[in-house]
Amino acid sequence: MNWRTQCAAIIPCVNEEATIGALVAAVRDQVETVLVVDDGSKDHTAAVARRAGAEVIRRECCGGKGAALQIGWQRAHNCAFPWALMLDGDGQHSPEDIPAFFHRAEATGAALIVGNRMVDAARMPWLRRHVNQWMSRRLSLASGRQLPDSQCGFRLMDLGAWTRVPLRTRHFEIESELLHGFIAAGQVVEFVPIRVIYKNEQSKICPLRDTVRWFHWWTTRIYSARELAVSAPRSGNSKVTFPSSSITSSAENGRPALEMNLLKRSV
Q1: Which of 114, 118, 181, 231 lies 20 to 30 Å from 94, alpha-carbon distance?
Q2: Model pLDDT for residues 91-139, shown as the tens digit of each residue
Q3: Topology adopted by domain 3-204
Q4: Side-by-side strand order, sheet with 83-86
């Protein structure tokens, strides 16, 4: 696989003029095509990214990280790229880690490779680390396998597999939906250790608002689906099947509202 020409890097960002130029230049050392989806920036993000050699898809209004990623994925797919590499635009992800994603994909045949910051979790901000671990535990139970870092946006994805996974979210919950969707579809998912880089950047995540959005996705797509499977009528020889990747353990049953209240208190 010639990753340099067969993979397009996709960077969704909002107001990242301070970091996007150096990031694009470094990523272009690894892959030829970099697509920056400027999600309604009010600064010079788009101009800086173009000067660094990126193709820029400009959105006048901020529609959310999930919506921006979907636009980037569709663009790369339309251009016949078989693979997409995703990085955040704020400099949290090191382009030096990119080859590790390519090596893991070749070694395992996985359709989705996710960065894992938990090998050096103590360097993450306390709140981000604990919310990530909390969500990762629930997704691990729902998916039937260990997911050490479910919220990392540094990923490598097979775009052919992506076209077969329905995705509906438009904001930061896209990380969870994509991961769970690939596992539920029977795709191989792997994790690769990456370095942890946090400086003085301001997170685009709003703890309360985006937690509520995550719970909305969780209750409508995961929790409610499990309840439907449990309560579905059975008669005669009919058999209701439900993918094990979407079934939670008994310890997870029945209290999404209570858990949300507890998480609100922690943030």
Answers
A1: 181
A2: 889 999 999 999 999 999 999 999 998 777 667 666 677 777 777 788 8
A3: Spore Coat Polysaccharide Biosynthesis Protein SpsA; Chain A (3.90.550)
A4: 55-59, 33-39, 7-13, 83-86, 155-158, 112-116, 189-193
